[in-house]
Amino acid sequence: LGFAEGNNAGMEWIGANVRPDAIALVNNDTRADPGWLAALARTLESDPQLGSAASRMVYASDPGWINNAGDMPLWDGAGVARGRHRPAADFDVNVDVFGACAGAAIYRTRALEDAAVDGKIFDPDYFAYNEDIDLSWRLQKRGWRCRYAAAARIFHHHAGTSGRSSTWVLFHGERNRCWTLIKNYSWGIVALAPFYTLGRFIAVLAGPPGGTAARYRAKASLMAIAWALLRAWLAVLAGAPRMLAKRWRHGLGWPLAAQLRILRELGAKLGQTRDH
User: Fold this and answer.
1) Whole-angstrom Cα distance, residue 181 to residue 196?
2) What is the DSSP letter of 61?
3) CA–CA separation, 214 vs 208, rounded Å?
4) Residues 255, 260: Cα–Cα separation, whole Å
5) What is the pLDDT of residues 88-127, one digit of tens each?
6) Residues forming beta bridges with residue 53, ordered by sequence position
7) With 0-12 CB in 10 A as exposed, 13-18 as middle and 19+ as buried, what is 12?
8) Where do the DSSP E strands lie in the chain?
9) pLDDT tens digit sequence for 5-42
10) What pTM, to 2 d.p., does this model score?
11) Across the strands, what pairs with 99?
12) Within 13 Å of residue 143, how many CA atoms lie on the same side as its CB?
């Protein structure tokens, strides 16, 4: 079923049989500090307007460095991990962020019900990747905020299941980025997004020797990378009618001014995408 629908199945069962105030998600490639869940719960309980709380995700191979301290949106539907590759000691303060990485997060049940689309929390069409960014846009649209919980530390074997910098990841990430753009973004930003994406791709290609582009090239040929991107864009076109129907049925698109404010206050700058 993939990450999206697999988690939906679990949350649906919990919602029907347990009816908790909140639901926590945790990836299978993580190891949590003993106080991780309690720290997330305390953070969520501190403010009734919080719909979710994000973990301090550090690299399991080097816990002194941040893997994710909350998600930040980009201007073309993608997202980037706040604090990635920065010292963990720099992220000791609880602050509001755009959203939580669903690999280690807690969500208020009422917020999830409020943001559901066709009865689903995560969009099952996504299968894996970017489904949490899509959910964060819906939670923000409904007025639910997210807060980074510095005490909720969890050790993450980054891409331990899917494989880092694989063409499988590239296909799903690029397809779902475009679907998130179609579903949630102002039409004015949608029109300009291809230019931003081109700039982002150039920034990745111009990155350091050990950066994102080099990692992909170490695992796949240029032809395989190009084919993965082409397949992703063809899948975007095939799924666009479904995404547009969800946008219109549930009022997911944002007014330009309101979305610009979110992107400026909680979004990522172009240079922060190089090593994502």
Assistant:
1) 12
2) T
3) 8
4) 9
5) 999 999 999 999 999 999 999 999 999 999 999 999 999 9
6) 106, 147
7) middle
8) 22-26, 30-32, 50-59, 62-68, 71-73, 79-81, 96-97, 104-108, 145-156
9) 999 999 999 999 999 999 999 999 999 999 999 999 99
10) 0.93
11) 71
12) 5
